[in-house]
Amino acid sequence: MYRVYAVVEGQTERAVFQKVLAPYLADHGIIFCPRVVGKPSHKGGNCQFSRVLQDICNLLKQENNTFVTTFFDYYALPDDWTNRDIAQSESSYIKKAELIEDGMKKTLLKTLTELNPVRFIPYVQMYELEALFFSDTTTMGKILGADESDFRDILDKFTGNCEEINDSRITAPSKRIMKIVPSYKKGSSVNAHGWRIIEQIGIKKIRERCHRFDAWLGRLEQLK
Q1: Which of 41, 107, 165, 189 is most deeply buried (CB count within 10 A of its CB)?
Q2: Quick one: 53 and 154 in the same domain?
Q3: Is the dihedral of CA 11, 14, 18, 23 positive or negative?
Q4: Is 167 found in the same domain as 109?
């Protein structure tokens, strides 16, 4: 069994990881441990890269035989993230993500010069966790109590690519959802929508529709 710590943005991500991803990865020999960025019991949201880097370093130094990954939404990343300004000028969502992930790794290796680089697996979600919901608009509509065609229409504008739904204060995935369903509930409570949608869709189907997310999980599954 391999232990992987995941530094995540907030309580919604932690709930998805604890309730859905951790059991899934356990079947692949991975003990998956999400940690919300910031101090213990912190609700998240402090995504300044200096804070994130500190948490990553602390986890990597804590045990020398564990791995650390990340899960942060590209949407609304603070400007202090390495390569953020360059990524903004790119048109390709894949290139945007790669620039941020490369920046994370290079900065970390400058900070922890003795680190074995295979122990850190950077990942940024394009453009938000909520993009994954669009891998099954029928399930999404059922849990949110909305007409699934509203979500399908959004997906069709991006030729069916969930990970291209997109980057602004009006059009980011969660903003689109809240426009249709103002009662959309983030967080980790029993009634929160995020983890329930992910659980009902299932990781297998999400991986089929979200290729960067699939590639990230594939890297975790191959850890040795």
Answers
A1: 165
A2: no
A3: positive
A4: no
Same domain? For 110 and 137 the reply is: no
- For the stretch 47-103, pLDDT in tens is 999 999 999 999 999 999 999 999 999 999 999 999 999 999 999 999 999 999 999
Q: Where are the beta strands (DSSP E) in the chain?
A: 2-8, 30-36, 67-73, 120-121, 124-125
Label residue 174 left, alpha or beta by phi (over 0 means left) and psi (-120 to 50 means alpha).
Answer: alpha
Model-wide pTM > 0.90: yes
Return the closest-CA partner of residue 7 out of 61, 64, 63, 47.
47
**Parallel/antiparallel/unpaired status of strands 30-36 and 120-121:** unpaired
How many domains would you assign to the chain? 2
Domain that holds residue 186: 130-208
